[in-house]
Amino acid sequence: MNAGGEEPVRGFCAAEVVFLNVLFDKFKEVLLAVAPITTIVLVLNFTLTPLGMPVLLRFLAGALLITVGLSIFLFGIDIAITPIGSLMGSQLTKSNKLWVIVVSGIMLGFFITIAEPDLHILAEQVSIVTSGDISKFSIVAVVSIGVAVMLSAGMVRILYNIPLYRMLTVAYLAIFGLAAFASEEFLAISFDSSGATTGALTVPFILALALGVSSMKKDSKASEKDSFGLVAVASTGAIISVMLMNVFFKSDKLKGSIDVAASHADSLFAPFAAQLPRVSLDVLMALSPLIAVFVIFQVISFKLHKRQFVRIIKGILYSFIGLVLFLTGVGAGFMDVGVITGYHLASMENKAFIIVVGFAVGLVTILAEPAVHVLTHQVEDVTSGFVKRKIILAALSVGVGAAVALSVIRVLTPALHLWHYLLPGYAIAIAMMYFTPKLFVGIAFDSGGVASGPMTATFILAFTEGAAESIPGASVLVDGFGVIAMVALTPLITIQALGLLYKLKTRKEGVGFFES
Question: Of 106, 47, 121, 116, whose CA–CA distance to 461 is shortest?
């Protein structure tokens, strides 16, 4: 008999029935997330921006791969990546030695980041647009070092109860100090790198790592607040490291463009065939260090029961299969559509169309980000259901929609520069930290990272690149890039605003749950 009192389906044992039920629930959840953006593209295809049959069919095939892949990936995250991160976090704090935590944090941060598929996607796009002047390897290596150092610093912050808002204030003051010396091209790349480091693989692991470290603290309130914020601290390392790369190596005066015609390729299967081996290798690179570290910890300290160990290995396999399908669908099915749609909408006389479409795309794309699902579930769990994941998703959707719309306006208006948005935006976000409940500060800055995942690094970035290629006087490298930075910024404000609303609500109800 299964949990519902019914006989298991003939040919399946009870465990397999549970597995299929959970997987089907994930599938329904993801289908509801992917359907809106698919609908938008289909409507545009039959109205403003006809895609052509081969491109449209590739898009639909990509949507199918995204739905199936994301469902399998999220299932793998639940039974493998999250438990590994939590186990490692708790084991590191048990050592009670600062040097062990610092060294382990740097190693874990470097190995996870250097293999993050989102970072490889962004770095490859930078390399293509700059015709190799900025190599893919240089971006990946420099960003990984920066994230590793700040991940380690973030773990030390949790252990020594250093307030998150103070560490983030110092980090962003350093960032804006360096921004004064960075070129305009690198300003966009550095902030985009920050968003690209917090992808489908790194976010679940870092969130679980933070949860594992903070759970060892005796103060339950401090533990709850410190469960969030590590993603935010780690991602600042990407910005700082790329800016330092620019300052020291003086790599400015770069030019770039994108080949829109190549996106109209007639082949249906060739893009998928080209993407599959490359994506498989990237995902294998992403998971190999994690598997190696897990096995080492298993031998040295975890000592998990055989059944638990096998379950986690199976979960890693599910994560591999799911992420390969997901990223293949995004790369082969969504990227070209993003470029074509952005280019043709920006070419229209009425520019209002591309602004409205940009807002709508941002509004619904966030729902398909794998890391967003992981974060919102953790928020609901940590707050015992008081903060509903649907409310966090709604706030994120509005914020990301506004981010894409503002990015499109910047592409259409060459006089507008990225720093015109980022400087006041981060000033507002940093000021809000001193009034917002500290739990929401961590959630907000983590949300900024998870919002800019694989869908943003491919479809939305391709959308603005296509628009920039169409607008006279706009630069693909300066104006096309930077949208990931905007997507990472707006949730800082919207989620903290949500936190202030919760604070007012609990005060009226006489509950001090979200006091600063």
Answer: 121
Q: Which two tokens stand for residue 276?
A: 């599959």
Burial class (CB in 10 A: 0-12, 13-18, 19+), 137: exposed
User: Per-10-residue mean pLDDT for the chain, 516 residues long?
Assistant: 46 61 78 82 90 88 89 84 75 71 83 79 81 82 92 85 86 89 83 80 75 62 62 89 83 60 68 87 80 82 82 88 87 83 90 93 78 75 77 85 92 88 90 86 78 74 88 82 86 87 76 52
Task: Kindly give the residue spans of alpha helices, DSSP state H, lying in 384-473.
Answer: 389-412, 418-432, 438-451, 454-455, 461-470
| Rounded Cα–Cα distance for residues 229 and 443 (Å) | 7
DSSP states of 157-169 as a string?
HHHTT--HHHHHH
Burial of 151 (0-12, 13-18, 19+ CB in 10 A): buried
Span between the terminal Cα atoms of the chain, in Å: 49
- The number of C-alpha atoms within 13 Å of 252 and in the hemisphere containing its C-beta is 13
Task: Report angle CA 339, 418, 481 to the nearest 5 degrees.
Answer: 25
Quote the CA–CA distance of 142 and 239 in Å, as a whole number.
10
Which of 235, 211, 226 lies closest to 116 in space, CA to CA?
235
Ramachandran angles phi, psi of 439, nearest 5°: -60, -40
Q: Can you read off the two tokens belonging to residue 161?
A: 């109860």
d(CA 63, CA 60): 5
**Rounded to whole angstroms, how far apart are CA atoms 498 and 104?**
35
CA distance linking residue 409 with residue 358, whole number of Å: 10
Note whether 455 and 334 are within 8 A (CB). Answer: yes
| Residue 43: HSE in the Cβ half-sphere, 13 Å Cα cutoff | 10
Distances in whole angstroms, Cα of residue 403 to Cα of each of 122, 357, 418, 447: 18, 12, 12, 14
Q: Which residues contact 480 (CB under 8 A, 6 or more apart)?
A: 129, 256, 258, 411, 461, 464, 465, 466, 467, 468, 469, 474
| Burial track 390-408 (b if 16+ CB lie within 10 A, e otherwise) | ebbbebbbbbbbbbbbbbb
Quickly tell me which residue has 């630069």 as its tokens: 475
- Tokens encoding 382: 């940590």
Place of tokens 């509903």: 388
Residues ≥6 apart with Cβ < 8 Å to 274: 332
CA–CA separation, 262 and 49 (whole Å) = 17
Residue 232 and residue 195 in contact, taking contact as beta carbons nearer than 8 Å:
no
Which SS3 state, helix, strand or coil, does residue 141 take?
A: helix
Q: How far, in Å, CA of 277 to CA of 283, rounded?
A: 10
DSSP secondary-structure letter at 387?
Answer: S
Which tokens sit at 100?
Answer: 């062990």
User: Taking a C-beta distance cutoff of 8 angstroms, is the pair 320, 448 a contact?
Assistant: no
The pairs formed by 389-393 with CB atoms below 8 angstroms and a separation of 24 or more are 391/498, 392/443, 392/447, 392/495, 392/498, 393/366, 393/367
